[in-house]
Amino acid sequence: MSRKTIKVDYLARVEGEGALHVHFKGDQVKDVRLKIFEPPRFFEAFLRGRNFVEVPDIVARICGICPVAYQMSAVHALEGLLGVQVKGPLRALRRLLYCGEWIESHVLHIYMLHAPDFLGYESAIAVAKDYPEIVERGLRLKKAGNAIVRTVGGREIHPINIRPGGFYRQPTKAELKALAEDLKWARDAAIETVRWTAGLEFPDFERDYEFVALRHPDEYPMNEGRIVSSAGLDIAVDEYENYFEESHVPHSTALHSTLKGRGSYLVGPLARFNLNYHQLAPIARELATEVGLGTPCNNPFKSIIVRAIEVLHACDEALRLVENYEVPERAAIELEPGAGTGHGCTEAPRGILYHRYQLDEKGLVVEARIVPPTSQNQGMIEDDLRDLVARNMALPDDELQWKCEQSIRNYDPCISCATHFLKLDVERS
Amino acid sequence: MSNAVRASNPDGKTRGIAIIALGNRFRGDDGVAIEIAEGLGPLPPGCTLSKNPGDALALLDTWEDAALAIVLDAAMSGAPPGTIHHFGSGREAIPKNLGRCSSHGFGLAEAIALAEALGRLPSRLSIYAVEAGQFEPGAGLSAEISAAAGKVVRQVREELRQYGAACNKAGSARELPANDLR
User: Fold this and answer.
1) Pairing state of beta strands A422-428 and A365-371?
2) Which residue has the higher pLDDT, A219 or A19?
3) What CATH number corresponds to the domain at position B163?
């Protein structure tokens, strides 16, 4: 009986450092390990003893791609703890900021990281040599997202304008109006992106997933909602830890998150789309119908189309928010420190991001807990790989390795966030 | 044109010099480019200085309208700490591990390759990278890196002076030979 190992030491086109090890014996997959070896970053410990006002600026440093998500989950948790709800124009401004992050993060992944897998290129640079107009479209579309984050957040990476209760400074009408023309172009480019991604070739690969996402009665979820799943879970954010648990596995410095008694689950664009399709902007639903993307979509490779649908939704929503912007009377609601525990969960580009903070009476952090989307998806990434390898055993090693890497990128894993990614190692024995 | 180091595109748009410093001053020797940038003093008219303009993709926009782009960075090539690497006088290959670590494995070398594929390199690109010795949080620059930073400041000033003189003589940077970094 043949034994074989396929091994990738450093996976490319993912954020952070990790590896994949696949070991099979004859026609049986013996072991699949997504090895995350990036050192743990101890952010939860850094936060202890810090004033609650500092939290959004510290957690923004967890990720250069999705800092807004960290800031949003933090401010919602802290505001819940201090008994304040941010409404009206300040809430709308936060939603606009989040649209900006979804656009820049999703477009980066679609064009620069995932598309080369489908097109058979090593990198986006190689794609650019043959299809410069496509890559240029991606770069310009990403810039539309960057511009929102810069205008509302103060700068593109690790924004500095976010505080519990609101912002440090509210943008002027003219500043937001200046975004409108680019957003109109971006919405058209997003439509083209949906059509382009839908024309790629997809492996015939579907699995039964438990999808988990936020759900909000009035909108496609970003900042608020209940945590729901395709298997009937429907809980408030503060019940999260009663239903989900994290455990340490020896091959990863990121904790694995599971649904208690049920196991792996999937968070991110595919989960949001399947659970909240009816809340998408009409134009996004129209395009999904045009390209034949229905719900439930159980093919993780099609997440690239779903990301494009979400970019379209975010561009449309951002344009609406910009056009209807009313300058908030005050940049923030003033908050008085107080003791207690608060929970926040928002939809980062890669899926739900849960935060819990305990403060003392002076408003200093006693304890912090952060569960990023990539640690929640780790188990499902391994389950997908196990199934994918079992179904594709006959493929030559190099083709199998390519498919495995592509499959990992279906989740746009952010290893830096999760350790808080990647080598591929396939062993045939 | 007096001492202004500018040239015109065929469309009449004024082009200048973009100096771009990449690095994190809170991570030991990774802050060397920021130290160099701040040591340059007053810059000639038409010269802009950007410190960490965004992710690596942002470089394409930052140098887009420049006749000359000077990029400052820390390097990790295995050379002795403080070694000054300069690329820009010929057709030298940029080592893949030149730049600092960056998200999704996309750094300076990849930004240059992407810009080249898209025809978005500046006419001239000059890169100074100082070999780093350590990236310890809060450690500041090592002594040999600090000394190298001072040398790079003098080299960049001299490059600006020579480039300005050549432009003034030619009347347009477009007439200067473009370099080609691959």
Assistant:
1) unpaired
2) A219
3) 3.40.50.1450
